[in-house]
Amino acid sequence: MLRAELDRRRLSAFIIPHTDEYQNEYLPACAERLAWLTGFTGSAGTAVVLAGQAAIFVDGRYTLQVRNQVDPQVFEPRHLRDGPAPAWLSTVLKPGDTLGYDPWLHTPRDVWALREACAKTRAVLTPCEPNPVDAVWHDRPAPPAAPVVPHDRAHAGTSSEEKRRKIAAGLKHDGADVVVLTAPDSIAWLLNVRGGDVPHTPLPLGFVLLAHDGTASLFLDARKVSATLASHLGPDVRLCGNGEFPSALDRLGNAGARVLCDPTRTASWIAERLTRAGARVVEEEDPCVLPKACKNAVEIDGARAAHRRDGAAVCQFLAWLDREARDGHLSELDAQSFLDDCRRRQPLWRDASFPTISAAGANGAIVHYRATAQQHQRILPGTLYLVDSGGQYLDGTTDVTRTIAIGAPVQEYRDRYTRVLKGVIALVMAVFPKGATGAQLDTLARAPLWDARLDYDHGTGHGVGSYLGVHEGPQGISKTAYAVTLRPGMILSNEPGYYKSGAYGIRLENLVVVVPAKTGGDEDGSWLAFETLTLAPFDAALIDVTALQAAELEWLNAYHARVREVIAPLVDAPTAAWLHRATEPLSRAEHAT
After folding, report:
1. CA torsion, points 103, 109, 114, 115, in degrees to nearest 10?
2. Which residues contact 101 (CB under 8 A, 6 or more apart)?
3. Which terminus of the chain faces fewer neighbouring Cβ atoms within 10 Å, N or C?
4. H or E segment and range at residue 153
5. How far apart are CA 508 and CA 511, in angstroms?
6. Is there a contact between 224 and 195 (Cβ–Cβ < 8 Å)?
């Protein structure tokens, strides 16, 4: 159907990214064009369709999943390591070909890369409205219309007025009249609001124009305006309908305004509309990104509290799993359901922070595996079980991964698990100078695996929001990306792993927050460290204690003592008894052979 539509529009090719007009990672159902077209349900990917061939591009998290979900006879799976879609297009487009793209789904940076690819082959790049996929997606779901609600200052820590005033001062300093905000997490943070338009992330989908005097216009579908929203926003934030957004851009252009747009987070349609109308588009990073990433004291305290409750839920689950999984009758879905229920009963819980990854045996090697009613398996003795999950609480967002031995583990499992654990410990024990980046720290987590010529094909850590996205930039830890320096208040994951395709997967994940270092010798306060937020024990049966150095063992025993001290009073007696056993101090002497 799509090829017929492309032919009707005289397009040689069309590119379909996994995103929406707000450049989201997680999408409302109406924007899941890539999944509808290809069957691939991952959170990142791009497909390109030509008359005689098609390809889908994914990163290392999805190399196994894409082959399970997508027909390779229709879409050739390609790893981004070997080149992104524009690079491939520059090899397959012919002179005179026309490549179509939806300007709402690509940023100016994206369009620049596509234009460069077309220039190499003398092809033509053309915007397409409406989207050709939408023209053939006859049962496409309706756009979401969840209410936009206030997010209390008791959890946000700072008023919207204070945030707007600081961002506006930056605009004035840089000589910009207005900033266009299209990233829903930036809008939610700036206005202290939350929504429900995207699964598992409380995002309000809309647009904001923030002026250099601190006043703002919020463009929303009228159905999303809750009864309390206007009074919460106050007189300096004007509520407007979505349909008013294009004319508001035109007015900025007619006034010759200098308008700040983030070239990596704003739809190219918006930048092009402003330019045509006469505005001076200033390409700068979204000014909300960095202050949102550096959590204030209230948000950090909220994260600590959320992780205490979340730790109680996870420990209740792990104790239950220890009792119930021994005879092999549990399925991945059984375990997922029980864990989700444990969280659901916690105070301030609102949702899962992403679909729980409940992966037994070989499924653990699929980094973002998801069990379904149609495809799942039992958790069998003698195997490893990997569970990656998290919660959205009013005071914080959590994300934790544990890998558990079902029955007695073989030595290979223990060796690989211990190497991954050593990576977790090495990273969390790091003390680093201000100005250090996640890319500089990434090696610490990989070194124990590299010693055995092993590695993992994903980042070591991603940023995490405050009752917002479980994946939040600009901070992160990986081999090549994340040049942004780490700053106090940033929350990140610490999650090395190891995956043996067709056999098992191991991943261990704690969330950490960047804090000032407390070690001696830091006279000017220029050194930073990580504080671990997550509270759940590691599986002692999988730890080769003899492979741990004294400092690593000391950290592990201290961490387990802290988990026991904090979580035991929050759980029932059977869970507390299990927790005491699971966190008993480990000794190299006792495990020597």
Report:
1. 90
2. 14, 15, 110, 111, 114, 125, 126, 127, 128
3. C
4. helix 153-156
5. 10
6. yes
Taking only the tens place, the pLDDT of each residue in 275-326 is 999 999 999 999 999 999 999 999 999 999 999 999 999 999 999 999 999 8
Q: Are 132 and 14 in contact (CB under 8 A)?
A: yes
Tell me the backbone φ, ψ of residue 521, rounded to 5 degrees.
Answer: 90, -5
What Rg do the C-alpha atoms of the chain give, in angstroms? 25
Dig out the tokens for 265 from the structure.
Answer: 């987070």
Nearest-CA neighbor of 288 among 270, 306, 262? 262
pLDDT per residue over 489-540, tens digit each?
999 999 999 999 999 999 999 999 999 998 766 566 789 999 999 999 999 9
Q: pTM for the whole thing?
A: 0.93
- Looking up tokens 């005033």, which residue turns up? 165
Cα four-point dihedral sign 21, 23, 28, 34: positive
In this structure, which long-range contacts are made by residues 524-532, counting pairs with CB atoms below 8 Å and at least 24 apart in sequence?
A: 526/433, 526/434, 527/431, 527/432, 527/433, 527/434, 528/431, 528/432, 528/433, 528/434, 528/436, 528/486, 528/488, 529/430, 529/431, 529/432, 530/427, 530/428, 530/430, 530/492, 530/494, 532/428, 532/494, 532/559
Q: Which CATH superfamily is domain 2-136 in?
A: Creatinase/prolidase N-terminal domain (3.40.350.10)
